[in-house]
Amino acid sequence: MTCCSLCVPSGPREKIVYLPCIYRNTEILKPDYLATVDVDPDSKTFCQVIHRLPMPNLRDELHHSGWNACSSCFGDASKTRDRLILPSLISSRIYVIDTSRPREPRIHKMVEPVDLYYKCGLANPHTSHCLANGQIMISCMGDPSGSGKGGFVLLDGETFEVTGNWEHPGEAAPFGYDFWYQPRHNVMISTEWGAPKALVNGFDPKHVQEGQYGQSIHVWDWTTHRKLQDLDLGPDGAIPLEVRFLHDPDAQEGYVGCALKSSVFRFFRTEKGGEWAVEKVISVPSKTVEGWMMPEMPGLITDILISLDDRFLYFSNWLHGDVRQYDITDRRKPRLVGQVRHQHSLVKDGPVKVLNDPENHGQPEPRVIKGKRVQGSPQMLQLSLDGRRLYVTTSLYSGWDKQFYPDMLREGSVMMQIDVNTGAGGLALNQNFLVDFGKEPEGPSLAHELRYPGGDCTSDIWI
Known about the structure:
Methylamine Dehydrogenase, Chain H; selenium binding; EC 1.8.3.4; methanethiol oxidase activity; 5 helices; 5-stranded antiparallel beta sheet
């Protein structure tokens, strides 16, 4: 399929999805693998893993993935979306996966960590985007010692060799995580998680006070690769993770989800001077609890996405356990129109007791789908091209899964489907859809991010 397949906000219904599945931090000493899942309701293998591609190494921590070609190379008939770029968050390896046979992907190439260390002074690769010039760009979170360093690795789009850094020497951000670019406006925005050595085995609140987690987003000149602005979001913007521009290439705004205080900030170009600014537009209140690691439990916004028509914004609160849908027709005043409450951290039979909930949600019964008690909580999101199906997985990152949802490491994560009302808005959990990664042949695994072979609303950038 050519890279211009997503030029309009519609397309054929998804038939398969790819998910990295992780064994690091579980009791199973096996390599991580890429799972291919059948999501075609007319198929005999619907809701089943139909192919598993194990990596050749242990403890990689596969995480996010991207394509060698996407809508940013529109008009170049020589480009084909047939290589999935699969960085490893902990080992710093990068796998290039051949998807020319979509239902049977195979490893095409492996980039060793030493290439990132020696050629770029970077480690812990995270987000991968293809560029219009044929290169592939991957954001990194740290340096080889585990300290924070938000730089960017460039791969040759044909050989997949590391060619060097995108940013200029000495201009890496203090921390790295995600990024999104808009060539029409000559801009890139990047975000921050934290120092890899601080978050590698779990979350310690004191590391926030020590300055080992970020709270800024960064504005870059797309042409010159110079860092132009550091926008400090303040305490309410601590740990800004996923960043999403509106899909309309004429738009000069987008949103970033900030985990620690469960806030969403809008970023935008100002009319005066052409600089960029931010404003908080959504805030999920924390709950006062007992029986937990802190007296206040934040929602922990861990993933956000925007529908292809730029009408709805979705995000997951991984600790509170809900998925929300906001109408963003008024960009400055998002309006909550849909919500599915899962709330695994706060279930009635769990160890946590809610003392004060500003939203008065109460503590629900455990979530059971097709006879399976779901462990973990909604985390990674992917929306169908027509906007009617929202797929959800429950694993965040194995080190934090182990800390906050230990039962999920023993019983495996799941993939669920939420039905979306694309008219007035509204969300409803599909009780007939479940992919149970607790039943994998090698033992329960942690399935993370979702990708469609033809591209999706979090992988494609229009120019």
